Every structure is written in structure tokens, then in C-alpha cells.
Amino acid sequence: MPRTAERSEAVRGAAIIEDAFLSYIKEFQRFTLQARLRFEARDWHGALQDSADRLDVYSSLVAHTVDHLHDLLDEHTRDKDAWRAMKGAYLERVNDRTDSELAETFFNSITRRIFVTVGVDSDLEFVAAGATQPLTRMVKTDRQVRTIGNFCMGFFSQGGFKLRLPEWQPLFMAYSLLCFVAEWCKI
Predict the structure, then answer these.
(1) 42 in the Ramachandran plot: left (φ > 0), alpha (ψ -120 to 50) or beta?
(2) What are the distances in angstroms from CA 72 to CA 9, 13, 40, 75, 82?
(3) Which of 36, 87, 118, 187 is the most buried if burial means most Cβ atoms within 10 Å?
């Protein structure tokens, strides 16, 4: 593929991926707002369905985007030079976003479907520095059991949830105790 054509395809491919990512964000936000209403209404079955639907949205948009890129790139779909250029063009589009890491992960999901990557291909994928560092546990001591319960109550009340806190306090305290037991037992 000539260099100018490669750049043009890269820019168009990056735009297709960004559009799909923005659609994902929009759908995720819609489900998240709906989750709040379902939680307040104690519609647990609806919340569970929304959770499954939210996961399906990601997979569906990734699959649709892969198909769209196959149509755009045709025989160059698995051309690594084209994808390196597309990665650069995509980075230009999403680099200033506050959720740029999520946008990069979405891009990686696309490349992994096309190239069936095992391990990491840093030429084609976005790789965060220090991404292999282990996560630390949030709950470390028994003193934090009450703190987590208070955090849960504060989170839901400040988040605009319409809850009568005395009614939910036992649930939050039970959650705190479970977190403590899980930490203590190293679960």
C-alpha cells in the first residue's frame, strides 16, 4: 500500500475505532444510570440483566468494528505496518481524553481479535508502563471494617442514591465484615 494511502486508511480506521469507543461509552453510561434506578427500586433481576447487557455491548461493538475494519482494509486487514500507522492516528485522536487508557484498551481489543495475539505485541497494542505490578488489597486490618461500612454509606448517599440509610446500614456493615474476613483468610 503506498504511504499516503496507508496514512489515509490509518486515519479512517482510527476514526472507526474511536466512533465505536464513543458508542461504547454512551451505552455504558446509559446502563450505569439505569443501574442506579434499578438499585433504588431493588430490581435485582433487572440489574443482573443490565450487567449482562453491558458486557454484551462491549463484545458486540468490538465485533462490529472488526467487521467494519475488514471492509475498509480488505487485504491489508492483517498488515502490521497499516496497524502501526493506525495506532499512531488513534493515539492522536484519544490522547487528550481523561479516559484515554480505556480508549487504548478498546483499541487493543480490536487488534487482539484481528491478530489473535498471544502475549503482548507492543508494536500494535498500547502497553502501560508498570502494568505488571501486583495490585494491593484494599482491606488490611480489622480497624477498617467500620471505615468500609461508612464509605459505602457515604458513597451511596453522596452519589445521589435515594436510600434510607438506616435501612441499608446493616448491608454495608455486613459487606465490610466480609471484606475483612476475606483479607484475614487471604481469600
Answers:
(1) left
(2) 8, 7, 45, 9, 12
(3) 87
Single-letter amino acid code for the residue at 125: E
* 103-151-102 Cα angle (round to 5): 5
Give the whole-angstrom CA distance, residue 5 versus residue 7. 5
Q: What is the pLDDT along the chain (187 residues), one digit of tens a residue?
A: 555 555 788 999 999 999 999 999 999 888 888 888 888 888 888 888 888 888 889 999 999 999 999 999 998 899 999 999 999 999 999 999 888 899 999 999 999 999 987 788 888 899 875 444 333 333 334 444 445 555 555 655 555 666 555 555 566 566 666 665 555 555 4
Grid cell of 4 as nine digits: 499516503
pTM of the model: 0.65
SS3 173: helix
